Amino acid sequence: MDRYAVIGYPVAHSKSPFIHAAFARQTGQKLSYEAVEIAPAALTETLQQMHAEPYAGLNVTLPHKVAVAALCEAVSERARLAGAVNTLVRTATGWSGDNTDGAGFVHDLQVNLGVAIAGKRVLLLGAGGAARGLIAPILAERPAELAVSNRNPWKPEELAEQFKALGPIVPRTHLSLKGDRYDLVINATSAGHANTMPRLPGQILAEGGVCYDLSYGASAEPFCAWARTQGAALQADGLGMLVEQAAAAFELWRGVRPHTAPVLAALRTPEPCGSGITHRLPPKPVHPNRIGQD
Ligand SMILES: NC(=O)c1ccc[n+]([C@@H]2O[C@H](COP(=O)([O-])OP(=O)(O)OC[C@H]3O[C@@H](n4cnc5c(N)ncnc54)[C@H](OP(=O)(O)O)[C@@H]3O)[C@@H](O)[C@H]2O)c1
Question: Most buried among 28, 49, 194, 255, by the most CB within 10 A?
Answer without folding.
Answer: 49
